[in-house]
Design brief:
This protein is an alpha/beta fold. It contains eleven helices and eleven strands. Helix 7 crosses helix 8. It is globular and about 45 Å long.
């Protein structure tokens, strides 16, 4: 698939734009990264400052603000492979949520959960979102540049970006939902404290055996503060059950770690369960 075909895929508009506020380059990977005896150099794996932006057909601001879904991908991926493999744009379209999808380039094709500026820099996420929305406004793709509701989604090693955003990002009050796809590998306190920090926030964690221990830790931290969690079998997740605003955990023993976002279009289903509103044409 060439660049033109990639950008044209799905029904809306896709842009890949460099931003100074994107995760990389960043001093934390100035010397690259080593994993299991292999070196991942900065120039190849930590120099791309791009972010993918997808505007679904029919999108419009909500109450003068831009609602967003920000996705953090896992190990050994990049923007293009993430969007193509997990059909994030198509699933956002199918969800009929009135939000723009943003996928920042993290480590490029590297086994690494670090996320540079978005994970480590104080206020880094706020600056990034302002940068993206400013670009949309300047280029005429959005009549406004104010951030509305933000949904964070993270798959696997993307927990580093999502957890860092909740720790240092400066936008926790705007974040309505955090959805983890087998991503409870760390930042347990950040996820738990965010979830119990306000009643309108919702944490949803879908997991396999890979993160069963991490999810047990996360459940205990959330449960200790507010004993009101739901634990579901992922084989039976009706939308009505997922729409609770209480912390929700769903376990699967039959779906592979890398298939969680696409199996039965679970990414779409989970987006439908968030605080994001429907496209106006879908409103009752």
């Amino acid at each position: 698939m060439n660049r033109a075909e990639f950008l044209a895929l799905a029904g809306g508009a896709t842009f890949v734009v460099p931003f100074k506020t994107a995760p990389y380059p960043h001093p934390s990977r100035a010397n690259g990264h080593d994993y299991q005896g292999k070196h991942y150099d900065e120039a190849t794996h930590y120099a791309d400052s791009s972010a993918a932006i997808y505007i679904p057909p029919g999108w419009q601001p909500r109450d003068g603000a831009v609602d967003c879904v920000v996705h953090f991908y896992g190990w050994n991926h990049d923007i293009r492979s993430t969007l193509a493999t997990y059909r994030l744009r198509e699933q956002l379209d199918a969800s009929r949520r009135n939000a723009i999808l943003i996928v920042p380039e993290g480590p490029t094709d590297a086994p690494d959960s670090g996320d540079g500026k978005l994970e480590l820099d104080e206020g880094g996420f706020a600056r990034f979102i302002a940068d993206v929305l400013g670009w949309l406004h300047r280029t005429g793709h959005s009549p406004v540049n104010r951030a509305g509701r933000i949904v964070l989604t993270a798959h696997s090693g993307g927990y580093g970006g999502a957890g860092g955003v909740l720790t240092h990002g400066g936008m926790n009050d705007a974040i309505s939902d955090v959805i983890l796809f087998d991503a409870a590998y760390g930042y347990y306190d950040a996820f738990a404290q965010w979830a119990i920090g306000a009643p309108q926030r919702r944490l949803l964690s879908l997991f396999t055996d890979d993160t069963s221990t991490g999810n047990a830790v996360l459940m205990s931290k959330v449960q200790a503060a507010a004993p009101n969690i739901y634990v579901l079998d992922a084989g039976a997740m009706p939308l009505a059950q997922l729409q609770t605003r209480a912390p929700t955990f769903a376990i699967t023993t039959s779906v592979a770690h890398d298939d969680l976002l696409t199996h039965e279009n679970w990414y779409e289903l989970f987006l439908r369960s968030t605080a994001l509103t429907a496209l106006r044409s879908d409103a009752v």
